## 1
Amino acid sequence: MEKQFDLQKHIEQGVEKIVTDTLKATLKNPKESAFMAKFAIASRGASKTRLKFEEEGLHVPGFLIASITSSCNLHCAGCYSRHNNATVDCEPMHQLSAEDWLKIFKEAGELGISFIMLAGGEPMIRRDVIKAAAEMPGIIFPIFTNGTFIDEAYLRLLDDHRNLVPVLSIEGGREITDARRGEGIYDIVTSNMEKFRSKGLIFGASITVTTENYREVTSPEYVNALAEKGCKLIIYVEFVPVTEEAAHLAPGDAERAYIAEAIDAFRRSNDQIVLLSFPGDELAMGGCMAAGREFFHINSHGGAEPCPFSPYSDINIRDTSLRTAIESPLFRELQVQGLLNGPHVGGCVLYEKRAQVEAIAAAGKQ
Ligand code: SF4
């Protein structure tokens, strides 16, 4: 499949648009616009840094996903992280320390990476790592949280460090959210939205899209309702069926076409809220962005993986540098063998081709 357009340029334009849109949307909020103005400069600098490395032959991804804990207080139905044993109920083992993560964040900044998504498990359990991230104002840290650990101390930290951007997980209305996440979670999430708005904080929502909620969560009514609550960003993540029983929840081609059309229609009519769709947007970018193409994943004990949905690694960042992880032989082989942008059925290509990924990872270890 030939490369449809310049991915790097698209990402840089994407970052600029998010910054400009956010700046436009935050004019009424001096603390936020002050931060965003500084970040706009930092993000332009970061793009130049990545371009310099590109010229030297190193492709630096635009963002990282960092799972900073294997613990979580919830047991959401169909949780991919629990299914992969990346989230467990026993005491976490071999987790990276806050110092380890700060070292990674610093190197990411030097390489020109300006977005690091913090995930888990429940990332807010690692208050020490979130405080370390707060010390890196040139990088924006979207924090994918279930919202149950937000307290006064966290509200103060988010208020004082605007590079920390909470992204609350929600599934739609109260009924479907509580059905998947547990009784009372919808009320906790929406009351946090109110607290964030009253403090003038930028925040987002992360929605796992299934065959049961795709019409509701992409409807203008639902998106506008979130925008009215102060939400500035929605990240749609297509459900990946980790068990046969859950396969019916995975969107098919018809649902995927509906979701893409609904999101495009909203983007054309409203720029007050930024909508991103994974892997939906990847199709328009010439294929899967994982394995260092535009991002990769670091798990809670330092393993560098192509993506949270592809838990295989041949490098542990604890023993080496982020730069070495970017040049992972596994990542290179996935790109060389065309697994990222080849034809495939279903949403997540690496999950779809997990047998091939596993074989490549195993071959690399011999
Ligand atoms: S909050 Fe996230 S990590 Fe925890 S169980 Fe739910 S989906 Fe899994």
Note: The chain has a mean pLDDT of 89.
## 2
Amino acid sequence: MEKIIDENKQGESLILEQKEGNTRKLFIESYGCQMNFSDSEIVASILAKEGYNTTQQLEDADLVLVNTCSIRDKAEQTVRKRLEKYNAIKKINPTMKVGVLGCMAERLKNKFLEEEKIVDLVVGPDAYKDLPNLLSEVNEGRDAINVILSKEETYGDISPVRLDSNGVTAFVSITRGCDNMCTFCVVPFTRGRERSRDPQSILEEVNDLWSKGYKEVTLLGQNVDSYLWYGGGLKKDFDKASELQKATATNFAKLLELCAEAQPKMRIRFSTSNPQDMTMDVIETMVKYNNICNYIHLPVQSGSNRILKAMNRQHTREEYFELIDNIKRLIPDCAISQDMISGFPTETEEDHQDTLSLMEHVKYDFGFMFAYSERPGTLAERKMEDDVPEDTKKRRLNEIIQLQQKHGLYRTQQHLGKVEEVLIEKSSKKSDAHWSGRNSQNTVVVFPKENYKVGDFVNVKITDCTSATLIGEALGYSINN
Ligand code: SF4
């Protein structure tokens, strides 16, 4: 693969990996969670072997793929709008083929081909290795579909082609699927049962990234805490494993340790954690290794025990507090972010106040906050009426967002006057004279460029802040540079 420098829509320079001799052009865009962006890199790799290089120009594409999200209705509406755009382009590029990937493809299946005439190809998250076959059907003029969910597939044998890459940070997927069955969530239906990737193939990818100049990896999964490798197969079948398999199994804390030791200068992050599955050995491993970043994304969704029960979240607010207090006791400067839903069915004002008081207890660094969006096929959709009025959902969501902004500022102000190690990722959005990077806590830090470059670890003295960004002055290279 050769690397070329290109620019994305935001004018940021990015590295595109291209295969010499490939003549076909693939335009691929992704929506939703980081898993989808990581999957698109798997798809680009599979198609690179079929003669496709990626292009940033939609009009030039032979094949257009959109990796879809189904987490909220709005996400699906966004995809339908993109398909209209492709329709217009197809008028000037009639041989262009269009395919849909990801969770919406898995949720809608054949209906996608019926409802969206421009779509030639529908492929679910576990069927990307079948793309070459499906494309040959499409090129013979037939629609093609594969939405079979797998019990084994982890794409551990595929070396991703980095897309939209800054050449410094990368995602490494470690598990697929989710067994938790939260009542509002489509993921278990669109991504199947939990299975973990072989730690050896994960370490190979981490070492390969380091050899290519990457300085930070994020270990990725819908629920990284339930990572468990015992030779392959579903997490839920672990009980049937042999005593030897059980004795030699690798859990998430062990995997973190393996990655941290494999590349001691590589920053290690992970996402997404789950309060019901997170264990103390993960926190203790974070304490043990300086290159594991002090940041945890720990969704909670609600602060009310009654609503947590209705959501089938297998923990109480008290157990969540205990986990938070343990994290803060062992890693006092650990940053924590949240996912929160306002207006879940039957949510009362009192439940909402429980959510606000939970946020007061934690004072999160930042969060992803949304009003409840009923998803077809989920238990909440089948059994619970979406009874909280839209304006009440919105009012409660605004209160959650405002409180988060107040706490975000409280947390960034804790960094004033401190010296933070920052990994430079790109130019600041607001000023070309400034670099933008992140500290160990995953907070964005902006400072004057001087002679530093993308990929440098720099010590920055924090002089000012907003509720989401730290502003500072460079003091010199950090020992990790
Ligand atoms: S843990 Fe719950 S919310 Fe997260 S992906 Fe699994 S089912 Fe969905």
Note: The chain is about 35% helix and 25% strand.
